[in-house]
Protein: DUF1800 domain-containing protein
Amino acid sequence: MPIRFSFPEAAHLLRRAAARGRKEEAQELVEMGLEAAVDHLLREPAPAPPYQTAASRSQRAQQHLEISQLWLNHWLTTPTPAAERLVLFWHGHLTSEFRETLGAQGIDFWNQFATFRRLGYGPYGELLKAIAQDPVMLLYLNNAESRKEHPNQNWARELLELYTLGPGHYTEEDILEAARAFTGWTVRLKGGLRPREASANVPFEFIFRPAWHDGGVKTFLGRKLRTGEEVLEVLIQHPQTYRFVAQKLLRFYLTPTPPEPLVQEGAGVLQADGTRGFLRWLFTHESFYSPTYRNSLVKSPLEYLVGLWYAAGVSRVEFASQSGRRLYQALAAMGQIPFDPPNVSGWEGGLSWLAESPLLTRINLLAAFAGREARLDLSVFMDQGDGTLALVKPEAQLL
Structure:
């Protein structure tokens, strides 16, 4: 049965795909038709602006403010906002924490987001291989110090538990063997500089140190291998990887409890056609527009603020200003600071966003939009959004 793609469906698609939109944009999608509208939203990401800082390598808090501001302003102004909501998904899936990744600079996290943007729509295996050599990830999960004498298990454990197979599909021995395979995968400052010699604009880069590597044979998931590259290939070819990631994508874009038949179907699409193919399949699937799944996701604080700012015609935030610092502090109070999830599992999300204190912070933020009522267009931000009073309705918190 063909999907009726009228204004409510287009607004729902914009809200779920991009977390921002206005009435005229939804109307343009209706005029395109469903398939062309989806292809339009999923086109190649516009590049984000470069990041440069005057802060020193020790002034990481200042760098964090700068990259947070730069990303949110990019999300508010980019012609490809769907790519930025996908960046947020990968950030919560292939997680790194700014405050816990000692040594890494703002430029390193900015480069990691560029990787999410550049490879995020493609085959999951290509993104996984890039993140396995990403300096932020190697520093965050301590693989940068992993040597054959004492293999560090952190990266290998999270690779299996959180990034590919999920619990129950591997053993502790598989973790140990994978950790051996990734010994010697480390980082250095670009150009071989020492930290005291380099500005905060000099990023880390991946380097393999053969002298640190355990070159012996390992047995991983029943396969004989030697290298980290071979571990990744085994996982990239494993069907469970795609079932696991497809389920997480469906939880992010469709419903907290996706039905198993959709997970299985989506896993096949993800493995065959990459993430863009998966999203195109989902956004043109009749289930995506079913009343069962409308308003079934809670906006994260970042999605709420980006959507509301955009609806109010705000195109730039300055965290250095007094009001901007209050917004940054509000993000912390709501439980979602860019580049800094609470732990390696990312954000819990869901109803936890609407606990009493975070919800009160959201409501208090509405005062910042006083005087913008004439420009406030809530037609995409929420179902039946008409006037500022609608912002106190439950639908304002939902995707």
Summary: The two ends are 25 Å apart (CA to CA). The chain has 16 helices and four strands. Residues 301-397 form one domain. The first helix runs from residue 7 to 18.
